[in-house]
Amino acid sequence: MNSTAKTEPAPDIIGMAIRDYYTGNYTEDIITETSISEEDILPVPYLFRDYGQMPEIEQVALMMARGKVLDIGCGAGSHALYLQQQKQLDVTAADTSPGAVEICKKRGVSKTVNSDIMDYNETGFDTVLLLMNGLGLCGKLDRIGTFLLHLKSLLGPGGQILLDSSDILYMFDEDEDGGKWIPSFPAYYGELEFRMRYKNVQGPSFPWLFCDYNTLQNAAAVHGFDCELLLEGAHHDYLARLTPVSATSP
User: Fold this and answer.
1) pLDDT digits (tens, 9 = 90+) for 125-174
2) Domain residue spans in the chain?
3) Is 138:107 a contact under the CB 8 Å cutoff?
């Protein structure tokens, strides 16, 4: 008799940490690790920061958000709450983490979605937000076209995508001539494997993309976007705005 083994769902690391903090059970932070770096700490309170505690890139993005907004990778909902409460915008907060979405609701976010963004199809958004290195959700550079085209399908007329990412070339060693030593695999140096651990619960590795601005600009142009560099941060990061090129544009 044939039987199909059941696959256990991946632990909701972000959701566990966010729920613990919200319910007063915060005792540890999230431990992160990538394929090119050692362990680092993601402080859970940082996910609950207010506007004044946010980096300038996030503040500028929130100031530029308008109309009907989709906040992708919303986490604990800090960006969504600011837009909803301070700017009175119609905001939908989306995340793959059930725990994060649960706490977003409890914190007062009016509209939430627990879904992979590639499976989400509501349209008519004036602003799509991808913050905290949000472009990383694309995973790999060869998926960026499909990713951007899907985001475009969610926009209404005159809509915009506001996203941030980082150029991580600085993380690689230099050779004797001053050039960067970059392994031949993966195909693009910004493609990493990322893992998180919380309270001795280890999550699975997943692909995460850090994309330099020129590469993003080229991909955007190929897939029908104007791409504008809005702000460069102090840590090799940047904020960009993508707007679909009108079919009537020359």
Assistant:
1) 999 999 999 999 999 999 999 999 999 999 999 999 999 999 988 666 66
2) 47-191+209-243
3) no
Q: Residue 177: its pLDDT value, please?
A: 63
The reply to whether the predicted model has a pTM over 0.70 is yes
Distance CA 86, CA 195 (A): 34
pLDDT of 27 over the 60 cut: yes
d(CA 137, CA 123): 19
Look at residue 121 and give its three-state secondary structure: coil
* Pair of tokens at residue 162: 């506001």
Residue with tokens 């494997």: 193
* CATH code 3.40.50.150 for 47-191+209-243: yes
Contact 238, 165 (CB under 8 A): yes
Token pair of 133 as six digits? 């290195």
Bridge pairing between strands 125-130 and 90-95? unpaired
Q: What is the reported pLDDT for 9?
A: 78
User: Is beta strand 201-202 parallel, antiparallel or unpaired with respect to 191-198?
Assistant: antiparallel
pLDDT tens sequence across 202-219: 999 999 999 999 999 999
Q: Per the structure block, which two tokens stand in for 132?
A: 């905290």
**Which residues, at least 6 apart from 161, have a Cβ–Cβ distance to it below 8 Å?**
127, 128, 130, 148, 151, 152, 155, 225, 241, 242, 243
Residue with tokens 């910004």: 190
Kindly state the tokens that stand for 197: 């651990």
Q: Average pLDDT, whole number, for the chain? A: 92
State the DSSP code for 190.
T
What span, in angstroms and rounded, lies between the C-alpha atoms of 169 and 111?
Answer: 38
Residue 225 has a pLDDT of 98
**Residues shown for the chain:** 250
